[in-house]
Amino acid sequence: MTVGRSLSAHDLSLAYGDRMVVQDLDVQVPPGRITAIIGGNGCGKSTLLRALVRLMRPRAGHVVLDGRALHERPTKEVARIVGLLPQSPIAPEGIAVADLVGRGRHPHQGAFARWSAHDDEAVAEALDATGIAHLSDRSVDELSGGQRQRVWIAMALAQQTDILLLDEPTTFLDVAHQIDVLDLLTDLNRQRGTTIVMVLHDMNLAARYADHVFALRDGAIVAAGAPAEVITPPVIRDVFELDCVVIEDPLSGAPVILPRGRHHVPPVPAAGGSADAAQGRPAEEPA
Amino acid sequence: MTSVAARSGLARRVAAARRRRSRRRLVATGLLAFAVAVAFALTLMVGDTFYPPGEVIRVLAGEIVPGASFTVGELRLPRAALGLLAGLCFGMAGVTFQGILRNPLAAPDVIGISAGASAAAVTGIVLLSLDEAAVSLLALGGALGTAATIFLLSHRGGFAGTRLILIGIGVAAMLNSVVVFVLSRAAAWDLQAATRWLTGSLNAATWSAVVPTALACAVLIPLLISQSRALAALRLGDDSAAALGVRATPTRVLALLAGTALLAFATAGAGPISFVAFMAGPIAMRLVGPAPTHLVSSGLVGALLVLAADLVAQFAFATRYPVGVVTGALGAPFLVFLLIRLNRSGGSA
């Protein structure tokens, strides 16, 4: 079902008021793959994601979905092809899990449409795929952060889009739930061929789970390609102004970065004394 | 993932639970409608002379019943109809504002939009001697103008709810003083009219006051209902709604305009009946429970509040008070209660 879905941006410029965030950017989202967008705070990665699902009107250039400009297509039609999990969605007070997941069916229903058996099947499938079927009657308010994130992903799944964009799907989750969510997205990609594009803060997770990485800096793409090509010390220095060492993850073979802070200078052989003492401690840190 | 059979079982379970929840909402809304019908019937039956249901029905069917035809047909029926329609309008307008601005304090009677309609209407009646239709239109202008002013004053790269509410409260105070000023300029001090424009009253209910409100309901309520699915999506946040294919700004503008207009027509007919728009939505949410939309249930709660408060205001005391005195007495503690609750939950209930 995902053959031929193509999503790309051409000469894209995005701005909030007078502030240019992205300028003359070209990207081609690899269909049927998992893509991670990495970059520092305020580099325009969330903005780019929002533009790809027409939450932002480009200042110049355009986003093209299946050969047609996104802004020329009806909103509901786009919503049946591209889904988005925003950074901080709001759950209405007291709403039941299955009802919230059912909101994902909105683009498939008319203004006064009755709920169809197909809608119920889509909700059931989404609940099942995210492993929250047993929670379906519970109120979303009662759930833990990890469970809640699964509910939001289930809502996006019920939308049954071939392309799914996620803005930092792992924030506020502990490490076990981060892995859990990314495994779930990988299942989705492998079993249904859903194209996934996500903004991720954790570069090591991006390297492990993504097939393709875009590194952004000041609204421009600095590097793009397989994780091993993008997650390298020069690119990381360029994007984050951070020195690091990159090693190979023994579990997945993906690159892993080890950031080098001011207090973690490479050990000088035979120096004996502590590196901390040599660097001096910052004043605000209790000794 | 589980087998196809297990999943279709799950789909059946999900569907059954969804139907159960929607049936529960339907029953609650039905009970509300029944309570409104009872209050409406009581308004027709109770008064200086009590008319039993049989006689009231004969009057409604168009028969000439000595005494009852005039009292019920000409006095009580317009009063009950105006109470019902104004209550529906206030309730629906209130919950629309509260939902879109995501704050129960953002009701149009708290943020000054009712006061805008009221100030325009009282000016039209007292100073310009306009007829009912012209007064309704002037009230609409006053409400829209006030709404536009509040939104423009509080807009600073998006709407912050609290700023809008505080500015609205200030605007409301100013406009209420306009109402008092205009009333004090009236040639003959008419207490009846004064209370109507200060707190809202059904005492002046006539068919000519009912008609504009009824027409507004006929046009605007279906319009609001047609937007309710999009508004339900907006409650998930703008980004989620947009990703679901909802055009956030047009939906919001249309719904706020419709809500403002409903409120303006009801205010032109019955005055700004205190706190009904503010109380109806939160009460409906507690009675019906979580639902995609509380539009109809809030309208019914609004109608019930107005009709029941009017019965209390007329007959519970030695003196007949205007309905707004009773809703105001209910609304003020409710406001305090909500403020305390909002304060506890950190400002987002």
What is the general shape of chain B? globular
Strand content of chain B: under 5%
Backbone CA Rg of chain B:
21 Å
- Estimated share of beta-strand residues of chain A: 15-25%
Kindly provide the radius of gyration of chain A, computed on alpha-carbon positions and rounded to a whole number of angstroms: 21 Å
SSE layout:
The complex is a heterodimer of chains A (287) and B (349).
Chain A: E1 7-16, E2 19-29, E3 34-39, H1 45-52, E4 60-65, E5 68-69, H2 75-79, E6 82-85, H3 97-102, H4 117-129, H5 145-158, E7 163-167, H6 175-192, E8 195-199, H7 203-209, E9 212-217, E10 220-225, H8 227-230, H9 233-240, E11 244-248, E12 255-259, H10 275-279
Parallel strand pairs in A: 3-8, 3-9, 6-7, 7-8
Antiparallel strand pairs in A: 1-2, 1-4, 4-5, 9-10, 11-12
Chain B: H1 4-45, H2 53-60, H3 68-100, H4 113-127, H5 132-154, H6 161-185, H7 191-199, H8 207-226, H9 228-234, H10 238-243, H11 248-270, H12 276-288, H13 295-315, H14 323-344
Helix pairs in contact in B: 1-3, 1-13, 2-3, 3-8, 3-11, 3-12, 3-13, 4-5, 4-6, 4-11, 5-6, 5-11, 6-7, 7-14, 8-11, 12-13, 13-14
Describe this structure in words.
The complex is a heterodimer of chains A (287) and B (349). By secondary structure, chain A is α/β, with parallel strands linked by helices. Chain A is 31% helix and 25% strand. Chain A has helices at 45-52, 75-79, 97-102, 117-129, 145-158, 175-192, 203-209, 227-230, 233-240, 275-279; strands at residues 7-16, 19-29, 34-39, 60-65, 68-69, 82-85, 163-167, 195-199, 212-217, 220-225, 244-248, 255-259. Chain A has a six-stranded mixed sheet, with helices on both faces. In chain A, strands 2-1-4-5 form a four-stranded antiparallel sheet, covered by helices on one side. Chain A has a two-stranded antiparallel sheet with strand order 11-12. In chain A, strand 4 and strand 5 (68-69) form a beta hairpin. In chain A, helix 4 (117-129) packs antiparallel against helix 5. Mean pLDDT of chain A is 86; it is low at 271-287. With 349 residues, chain B is mostly helical. Helix content of chain B is 77%, strand content 0%. Chain B has 14 helices and no strands. Chain B has helices at 4-45, 53-60, 68-100, 113-127, 132-154, 161-185, 191-199, 207-226, 228-234, 238-243, 248-270, 276-288, 295-315, 323-344. In chain B, helix 1 (4-45) packs antiparallel against helix 3 (68-100). Chain B is globular, with a radius of gyration of 21 Å. The mean pLDDT of chain B is 87. The A-B interface holds A 17, 50, 53-55, 74-80, 82-96, 98-99, 102-104, 106-107, 109, 111-112, 115, 117, 120-121, 123-125, 127-129, 133, 136-137, 139, 159, 191 and B 1-2, 6-8, 10-15, 17-18, 21, 157, 226, 229, 232-233, 235-237, 239-240, 242-247, 285, 289-290, 292, 349.
